[in-house]
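Example 9 (inverse folding). The structure is encoded as follows.
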């Protein structure tokens, strides 16, 4: 049987005869096949907290109720409800039937005005045009990093620090450099180390104050020194201030922007912590740029990035003005009083435990505890230590390896007081059972 052939004209000149059967056979070899792979961005996205916690293969002690001191959600145990005025504002927003449609991507004008009025001060004035509403503070941080940085550039991030900074940056192809916080100085920034990391590819410095995971609060003078470093190198600051004003008695909160005369600041905040509604996902970026360093480009960039998800929940936006303006000072004061009381209980109790070194917090809702690992030789790491604590005492603290700071663990102080007392008792019992006096200590005592 003869194979059918046909001609193909090449370059408008000669005609080549092609065997149809052979051509079809070759075409079959090239038939498309399913080959779907995850994107490079998704492969680069890595959350160290989830990776460490999910890899913990441990069951709590069945004879003891689980006490979770690991989750930074103040609503978990029901002992810290938001204020009734906040709930009423939400009900009124729903009943108005005016908040059911799309809002501008950067938020309703009236809601942005409410935020700008609330945070504006003579040292750092704000208008509605300086506010971008976001889906929680985490999206505010994401947008701020995205607008300031390109792949191949780097950001400076605190160590220990909130893991999301690195998760977001690495997924965007942005390098992360870790600058040290000093536990012996109540977690102040090691300014020399910070400055040594800045190079021509540094696009911003992230400053978290008050701090997660440390519970520290920077003094006015320390913030001024941070700003001076940024000013010398013409580097903007991304200020994570989600715990703004959540400071204990005897401390004073100072926003970064209120002290800056030339360094532009993107301040990220939201309702989650201070108003105790993290699930409502309402955050914001405050643009502080009194020298017009950002110009229109950064502002326009934030607007464009905001348009990717068309803004946060419109019902919460509709309630925002009333939430901010009608929440009584007593509510804030009661929250802070509770957090300080629990922090004091925890710090005092664990200060007496051999082998542990708690660092006294000044705000937020966390406390970091150092582990003198030489006195616990059976544990390989802080992750191992906290795993065994779960298995034996049913107390879950987050190992500080999650925050790039091994041999510490973080305690969340939002649990009810009786649970905090019980947790501290169990941690003490656990340490007493596993503590070993280090050989060097014995020799020193003999000498």
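The amino acid assigned to each position is listed next.
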């Amino acid at each position: 049987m003869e194979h059918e052939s046909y001609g193909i004209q090449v370059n408008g000149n000669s005609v080549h005869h092609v065997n149809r059967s052979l051509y079809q056979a070759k075409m079959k070899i090239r038939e498309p096949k399913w080959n779907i792979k995850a994107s490079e961005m998704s492969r680069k996205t890595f959350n160290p907290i989830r990776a460490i916690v999910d890899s913990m293969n441990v069951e709590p002690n069945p004879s003891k109720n689980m006490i979770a001191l690991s989750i930074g959600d103040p609503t978990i145990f029901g002992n810290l409800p938001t204020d009734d005025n906040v709930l009423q504002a939400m009900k009124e927003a729903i009943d108005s039937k005016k908040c059911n449609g799309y809002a501008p991507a950067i938020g309703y004008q009236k809601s942005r005005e409410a935020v700008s009025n609330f945070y504006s001060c003579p040292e750092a004035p704000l208008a509605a045009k300086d506010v971008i509403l976001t889906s929680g503070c985490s999206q505010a941080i994401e947008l701020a990093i995205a607008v300031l940085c390109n792949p191949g550039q780097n950001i400076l991030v605190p160590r220990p620090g909130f893991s999301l900074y690195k998760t977001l940056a690495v997924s965007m192809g942005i390098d992360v450099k870790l600058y040290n916080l000093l536990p012996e100085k109540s977690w102040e920034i090691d300014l020399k180390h910070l400055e040594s990391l800045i190079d021509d590819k540094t696009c911003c410095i992230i400053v978290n104050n008050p701090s997660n995971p440390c519970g520290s609060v920077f003094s006015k003078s320390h913030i001024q020194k941070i700003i001076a470093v940024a000013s010398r190198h013409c580097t903007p600051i991304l200020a994570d201030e989600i715990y703004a004003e959540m400071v204990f008695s005897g401390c004073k909160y100072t926003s970064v922007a209120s002290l800056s005369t030339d360094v532009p600041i993107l301040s990220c905040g939201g309702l989650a912590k201070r108003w105790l509604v993290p699930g409502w996902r309402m955050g914001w970026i405050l643009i502080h740029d009194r020298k017009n360093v950002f110009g229109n480009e950064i502002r326009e960039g934030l607007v464009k990035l905001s348009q990717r998800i068309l803004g946060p929940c419109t019902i919460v936006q509709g309630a925002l003005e009333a939430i901010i303006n009608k929440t009584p000072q007593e509510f804030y004061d009661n929250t802070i009083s509770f957090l300080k009381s629990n922090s004091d209980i925890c710090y005092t109790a664990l200060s007496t435990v051999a082998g542990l070194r708690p660092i006294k917090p000044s705000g937020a809702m966390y406390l970091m505890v150092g582990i003198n690992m030489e006195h616990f030789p059976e544990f390989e790491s802080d992750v191992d230590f906290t795993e065994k604590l779960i298995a034996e005492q049913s107390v879950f603290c987050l190992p500080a390896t999650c925050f790039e700071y091994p041999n510490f663990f973080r305690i969340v102080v939002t649990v009810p007081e009786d649970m905090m007392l019980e947790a501290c008792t169990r941690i003490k019992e656990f340490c007493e059972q596993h503590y070993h006096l280090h050989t060097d200590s014995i020799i020193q005592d003999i000498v």
